[in-house]
Structure formats: structure tokens, C-alpha cells
Amino acid sequence: MSDRLYVGIDLGTYQSTISSSAGAIHTIETIVGRPKDPVARNFLGRDVLFGNDALKNKLACNLYRPMAAGVAQDDEANLAAAKAFVSHLLETVDPEEYDEVFGVICSPSHVSFTDKSNLVATLRGQVNAIMVVTEPFATAYGIEEIAGSIVVDIGAGTTDIARIHGTFPSDEDQITIQEAGDWLDLELMELVRKKYTGAQVTKDMVRRWKEASSYVGMDAKEVMVELSVEGKKQVVDIGDLIVEACESIIPLVANAVKKIVATADPEYQPILRNNIILSGGGSLIEGIAARMAEEISDIGDVNVWCVEDAINSVANGALKLAGEMPDDMYTAIN
Q1: How many degrees, rounded to 5, is the angle at CA 133 between CA 127 and CA 134?
Q2: What are 178-213's pLDDT values in tens digits?
Q3: Which end of the chain has fewer surrounding CB within 10 Å, N or C?
């Protein structure tokens, strides 16, 4: 057995990624399914399903998305689902091959003591020591942009914005807003239902449409999708609705960015304005960097850009941090 395995974990509302010092990296949708009854248990042949397996069999399962807003929900069923999910995520990097496992896990910028305790509890008994850091800081650390930047992590449950200036950000350096990917999905769902009366749509459907075709800052494009109206198939164009929904989040995130700039040291503000980094799933919206720059241009010259690897940037940054921090920065949790 080897001595120690380091892992970086981005435990997200919609999907989670783990990156290990052994070179493994895996992303799994953060969903847990438990068979509804003995018939379903016999049919599925398992007591618990994860990710795509749970979704494929959702009619036979009770589904749990245990990481609402990026933290474990504070009820028995979801806490149990979160612990089972984290155990499954860790198994993908073969921790049993090592004497000890040290992990850095990422959370939204502002979480309560209870939320952080629940987050740590999901890993109790599964790793030897843990450090909790915020998602924007992990991203900045991983891409070596900690000297002076603003990182905007547009996730599923929350959008987290932080000033990064060579050290761990304080509470005053960070803002969390609830308008993020899930909020955008609900906006798009409502727009579809208003335009196509009687349309039967689910959140998973609109999320897939958004991920395939989201864009801002340009004229409406044709996006044809299939939906049901009272059980009858219809193929409709929702391109105008996708851009309308995506555009609705821009001013909300922009206002939070402006606040982060305005409350910074005035001598440092020009540096921050010229290094605004978008990350998280929301950074994959086509045209978002240019559109965000346009929205905040009234504060002066700005430079807004997107990370290259939006899905893995948080976990990879957490892993880099895990291997470089001294042991006394970790909390033992066994």
C-alpha cells in the first residue's frame, strides 16, 4: 500500500467531481435513487443507485438530490443519501489502496456552521483529514490566478463570487447569490409553459435544452425541441426563450460583481476589474464573457474571461491545494 492519497472534491448541487493524486478524475451527477418497494428492489438488484443509473430508473426509485445549494440538506434521508453518494464518489479513486486519505472539499462561499458540519459529516469515516475551502478560491488556486482576481462560479445551486488576493478569502471578500443554474432552469420552464399552453415539461428536460443550446448577447437562434402537449408530440422552437432566460441572470450576477469591486481596496480595484474569471457550468453559456463585460462596463475598463475546464476546475484546484498545504491546515475527522 502507498502512504497517502490526496483528493479534491467538488460536491455540487447538480454534479460532483473528484480528482485524485493518483491521476484519476470522475464526474457523477449528484443524485441518489433508492428502490420504491420490494418489486423495484428485485427488478433493480440493488439497494441504492447513483447518477445516471438513478435517473434511468427514476420511476422505480425515490430520488434524492442531497446537495441543495451545494451543502447537505439537514434531514435524515438526505444526509444518508449524501453520505452514500460521497462514499460512491470516493470509491471511484480506489482509496483502499492507500494508508490514509486527505481531502479538500469545496463549498459555496457562505455556508452556516450546521451546513459545514453536515459537509464534514459526509466524509467522516471515509477520509482521515479534511479541509473545506470555497469553490472560487479552489478555481483560482488551480489556475494560478490568486495574485489578484475575481472568480465568479456560476453553479447549479448558487453563484459564488470572490475577491482573490494571495490568501484565503475572508467573508467580506465573498458574495453568494441564489440565482444560478437551477434558478435559470425554472425561468426557462416557465417561459416554455407560457408560450406553449399545456406543454408537459420537467426540470431535467429544460436543463438538457439549456446545456445543449444556451447563449446570450446575440439575436435569437432556432432551437428545435420535442415536447408533449396533453400527450401529443410537438416539435417547437424555443431559441428565443433560451436566450431570454439566460439573459435574465446576467444583471443579477453583474450587480454582485460590481459590489465585490466597489468594496475592495480602491488601489486594488483596477487589478480586480481587469481579471474577472467566470467558472462553473454557467460559464459554458455561449457569449457570456463578452455579455458580462458589457453589463459591468460602467465601472471602467474590464476584462472578463472563462476558465478552460469549467467542469473540472474546482476539483483540480482543490487537489492542487490538498497536495501543497501543510498537515496542520487539515482537520482530522476519524
Answers
A1: 135
A2: 999 999 999 999 999 999 988 899 988 999 999 999
A3: N
